[in-house]
Amino acid sequence: MTKKGRRVLEIQRLDYQPDGDYPLDLEIFRVSDLRRRVGTEILGSTHRYAFLTLLCVTRGACTQLVDFESVPCAPGSLLLVRQGMAHSFGATEDWDGWLVLFRPEFLLPSSLIEVSRTGVSDLDGLPTHLVPAETEAAMVTRAIAQMHDDTRMGAAAEDMHALLRYQLCALLTRIRIIHAQNKAGGAARSPASQRFKEFELLVEKHFATWHHASRYAERMGCSEKSLARATMDSAGVNPKAFISARIVLEAKRLLAHTELSVSDIAERIGFNDLSNFVKFFKREAECTSMEFRRQQMPFRSSSGSEG
């Protein structure tokens, strides 16, 4: 899909690889330490992580870039970057914060058992961006700082992993509670909100193969009208639009981050007919797939430079 002789660089994928002989499966450090370690240019580049990253801004203001969207952050802001998302720390240097890096399998074994039974994990219900109140932000910051200090205890790795797992579970639970309490009134616990939550989780799991709202309603055991009301109340769009938005986001990720052909991308997200995908993408993104890819190329080239 590129002209002969033109080299299209993918956004770099980063695995969990702590520096030196660090023995733990969860790492915590300050953004300022990372900036000194890798340099401002690399920090401002765009990467896709094979792990999860929790950012807690503690000083200054900055703008993060997550999946084609700018996210303004101030002291207290929390940002959860999941696997597969494209993320850049931006060009601003006059800010700092804590970074918590971990792989999803580091979560508590009991949580993994819960996932197998209900499909819900410690990461479900957590927003990408959250702005807690000052007192709540202070509690989160103290919890992360304590975890950071505990990683330096020098205890046996098995004991440290057990301690950090419980601390991480408590931290994520606290963030989920803060997010729920920030929602208006008791809407977060209403039946309609719970129905939308179930729908949201199913879309994330099945968007590449289930393109119609009827399939989700059938799986959830509710009518399409009930699903439509819940989705409109919670997300402000109907189920079809919500599903389409997730599909087109995945298409954008693949167009911007990989060298896959448009036909391969279409197949990956459930379009057997390329022409249907072409029409779908143009309608949803307001440009063709190749126009979108070309728009990303200058950014990709600068992001993919040495380092």
TrEMBL record:
Name of the protein described by the UniProt record: AraC family transcriptional regulator
Ion transport in keyword set: no
InterPro entries, sorted: AraC-bd (IPR003313), Homeodomain-like_sf (IPR009057), HTH-like (IPR037923), HTH_AraC (IPR018060)
PROSITE patterns associated with the record: HTH_ARAC_FAMILY_2
Pfam families: AraC_binding (PF02311), HTH_18 (PF12833)
HTH araC/xylS-type domain location: 197-295
Keywords: DNA-binding, Transcription, Transcription regulation
Molecular function as annotated in GO: DNA-binding transcription factor activity; sequence-specific DNA binding
SMART domains, sorted: HTH_ARAC (SM00342)
PANTHER family according to UniProt: ARAC-FAMILY TRANSCRIPTIONAL REGULATOR, TRANSCRIPTIONAL REGULATORY PROTEIN
